[in-house]
Amino acid sequence: MTDTRESGTRSRTRRAILAAAASVLARDRGATLADIAEAAQIGRSTLHRYFSDRQDLVNAAVVDSFRVVEKSTAGAAIDQGPPIEAMRRLIAALVDAGDRLAFLFGDPRVLEEFTACFEPDLSVPTTVTLIERGQAEGVFDPGVSAEWIQQVLWALTYTGWEAAEKGLLPRHGVAAAVTRAFESGMVVSPARP
Amino acid sequence: MTDTRESGTRSRTRRAILAAAASVLARDRGATLADIAEAAQIGRSTLHRYFSDRQDLVNAAVVDSFRVVEKSTAGAAIDQGPPIEAMRRLIAALVDAGDRLAFLFGDPRVLEEFTACFEPDLSVPTTVTLIERGQAEGVFDPGVSAEWIQQVLWALTYTGWEAAEKGLLPRHGVAAAVTRAFESGMVVSPARP
DNA sequence: TGATAATGAGACATCGAAGTCTCATTATGA
DNA sequence: TCATAATGAGACTTCGATGTCTCATTATCA
What we know:
193 residues; HTH-type_TetR-like_transc_reg (chains A, B); Tetracycline Repressor, domain 2; transcription cis-regulatory region binding (chains A, B); transcription regulation (chains A, B); transcription (chains A, B); 10 helices; mainly alpha; homodimer
């Protein structure tokens, strides 16, 4: 899928811009193209050489972030082993891709826009598949939809990332805190309502 | 605190603008003042008669939303009864104030800005107080900070609101889904890591 | 009803970000 | 080294949101 006609230099610059865009926009959606260029350590005019539009840049950043998260997910091998263990690997992977996830999750509109027109890599097992597998095995709550569980997963991961940003959680404790919240909730001896 | 010199008409219009602002901005942070005026069913020039600045409007909307959420919280009487029950009432109240919460929670910067300069009504028991009470009684997870639990609470509530917006959850099921997630997490037989 | 408050429509100026372009400089690779 | 690719700085235009203002109309209340 990568354009092989693009030189190494250009390819590297492009990646830097996309990473900077996701990182900056995750923290401030109203950020200026100048802000993004500065974060990418390039001139604003250079940015325009790669992406004609702001919209063009955002679109590319979304697709790119999808790919990055997808890759992280793939690395967690979530189609193997017990669902609980697979989910713990997935959470760790998602936390690692925090910037990208925060960028995607932080803007509901962006996500919606692309869910329709963006066809995911079918060779990569999806999060929903893992959740459904866990539900079938009676490990994940079968009383709610897999999509809801996925939303909760993303929300908790995002919250963990944000908490670390604010200094509320130590970086190295995010994955554990998210995992714990996801698996057990906040009540010690849960009484199902 | 309400300016008694303001006529009933103006007071009503002001409230309508603030409610519209929170509602519109919760769904689209980049929304135009024209969008907000339209949602409030007033002319754009009228809006400027009430709030000189965009910043002025946003500030007022934040303060107002704080008050609304505070009032909801107060109505839940979270300083009374078992913490679990109090938390369930609180979640129901927060879900009811969904728009306002989404507005406040959806923009981390807004929240930060005001947490410092905005002194809360001390006569109203705070969420953190409830959480700490629950932790002291061994009901809420004492292994994490109360602030983290509060973040999770807000995140889950926001996610429930958003899921309802997207049609992923029925409106009447949001509070139950959030409560369940908050208390028990997503795993049927939790194995604490 | 009559005085006044409140509003809506819209013209107008302003301002900042976005986007375009040029030219000199630096980096890359054959 | 040399040709070419890539970049940075900055001038410039465009465009849309914002903020100001006027005037006619409508709503409110004594």
